[in-house]
Write a structure and sequence with these properties.
Helices cover 61% and strands 7% of the residues. By secondary structure, the chain is mostly helical.
């Protein structure tokens, strides 16, 4: 997947253009009328979207029509979803590890009748003053 897709999506004007094009194709003039920036500035934003493969532009008489090309957006969404799932799996492993540590701690309390001394590896340990606090 191209980084240019994410770069192209990194601007509010281009977001608005993409949002508008999800409804229907539009001429460059129609898109420009949505903004208080110059026609040339909107045209430059459209060129950025074109370079990213998000919109093709074609001439229709005297007007240039722009349409949304969904394939790059679908590809970007799939890429993000794969990263989200991978991150979710990492968080689940961390949750499982923390649950195991808490369970071990509860088992130790039940067996000995008192709380074990916290260690630096114990995520449930509370800080009762550190060197940072005394500095």
């Amino acid at each position: 997947m191209s980084q240019t897709v994410f770069a192209a999506l990194g601007d509010p004007v281009r977001h608005a253009i993409i949002d508008r094009l999800t409804e229907d194709d539009a001429t460059v003039g129609q898109l420009a009328s949505m903004f208080t920036i110059t026609f040339q500035a909107v045209s430059q934003h459209i060129r950025t979207l074109e370079r990213a493969g998000l919109v093709p532009r074609h001439r229709e008489g005297r007007h240039q029509r722009v349409r949304l090309e969904p394939a790059p957006l679908i590809e970007a969404t799939e890429w993000l979803e794969r990263r989200r799932l991978r991150l979710e799996q990492r968080y689940q492993r961390l949750d499982d590890l923390l649950a195991g540590l808490l369970s071990d701690r509860a088992d130790a309390e039940a067996t000995t009748g008192h709380r074990p001394e916290p260690t630096t590896a114990d995520p449930t340990a509370t800080s009762k003053g550190t060197d940072h606090d005394n500095a």
